[in-house]
Amino acid sequence: MRVPCVRVPVEEGEAIRTLLADAGLLDGDREISVEDDDIYIPVVDADAVPAEYEVVEREAAERTGQVTPDEILGYEPSYERLGDIAIVDVDDPGEARRVAEAILESDFPCRTVVNRASKVKGEYRVRDWEVLAGDDPEDGPEGGGTPSRPRTETVHREYGHEFLLDIAEVYFSPRLATERHRVVEQVEVGEHAFDMFAGVGPFAVPMAARGAEVVACDVNPRAVEYLRENARRNGVSENLTAIEGDVREVAADYGNWADRVVANLPHSATEFLDTAVALAGEECVLHLYDIQHEDDPFGPGERAVRAAAGGEYEVTVETRREVRSYAPHEVNVCLDVRLSRV
């Protein structure tokens, strides 16, 4: 049977499959297929697929022999995948464990199931997690008693790069994969790129892979450890400098240096705009992430950039982009702003 399918390069397949699933567009009754260097992901509504993705008609076989959590539970639970961890968000403890057991019993590929036990909190923006099911860290290889890795540590793959991380120790959102890729695609060989709040490197590592010289900063020491490891894993250690510390202090060594600055700390990035401007070279693109009310999602950030730039830079907003809904009446947005020294 011919059905609409999103066609993307194989290395982008898992990230796009996750995004389509989160949007309720994935056709779970049809098989995903691969041909040459492309993967074809069946969708239930071609018209609802974002315009940035190519949709083609293609034969897609019915899925057979695979058991889903939905079939075990009798309803469709809400969960997402990060590497080999399944993440659920269920308030009732008993129901949360039922969902976790169903996920493990199904053919959904995962090693551990966790439940969100708190909101993002603290300076490092991490959550508490309840491990519901999965391998026991005290059960080492062949019962040796030494765990191969913590239950909350995983390897996430995104657009051809891999990121080792522990969700209990660092902040990471797989839902922003497409947005990160959009920014990374703008990077040119030889650029100086500064990531102000780098985390484990989902912006910094791909920018370095594009040929930029990257400086990546974060206050979370564990995030910086993972960042350095991820630079090594992806073969970009030579052109990525990872620094642990407050970017306001680090920036003193990189004044007027950057051709591109990423400021992805949506709740408070505008408080660091003086630092972003200090980092900017003669010509610099600033990617500012913000969370604002839907009535004026871009105005506050744009006004804050202009105030920080003062008379030193001409400010041109090149892109105003709504990244995702964040909360009722609030949106996560990005402003791509060009700063040109006057």
Keyword list:
single chain; 342 residues; alpha/beta; Alpha-Beta Plaits; GMP Synthetase, Chain A, domain 3; Rossmann fold; seven-stranded mixed β-sheet; 23% helix; cytoplasm; Class I SAM-dependent methyltransferase family protein; methyltransferase; TRM5-TYW2-like_MTfase; transferase
Would you kindly provide a written description of the structure presented here, covering whatever features stand out?
With 342 residues, the chain is α/β, with parallel strands linked by helices. The chain folds into 3 domains: 2-59, Alpha-Beta Plaits (2-Layer Sandwich); 69-151, Met-10+ protein-like domains (GMP Synthetase, Chain A, domain 3), CATH 3.30.300.110; 172-341, 3-Layer(aba) Sandwich (Rossmann fold). The chain contains 9 helices and 17 strands. The strands form 4 sheets. It has a 7-stranded mixed β-sheet with strand order 13-12-11-14-15-17-16. The chain is globular. 39% of the residues are buried.
Tell me the layout of helices and strands.
Layout: E1 2-9, H1 13-22, E2 33-35, E3 38-42, E4 54-59, H2 69-73, E5 79-82, E6 85-88, H3 93-105, E7 112-116, E8 129-134, E9 153-158, E10 161-166, H4 177-184, E11 192-195, H5 204-209, E12 213-218, H6 221-233, E13 240-244, H7 247-250, E14 258-263, H8 273-279, E15 280-293, H9 299-309, E16 313-327, E17 330-341
Parallel strand pairs: 6-7, 11-12, 11-14, 12-13, 14-15
Antiparallel strand pairs: 1-3, 1-4, 2-3, 5-6, 7-8, 9-10, 15-17, 16-17
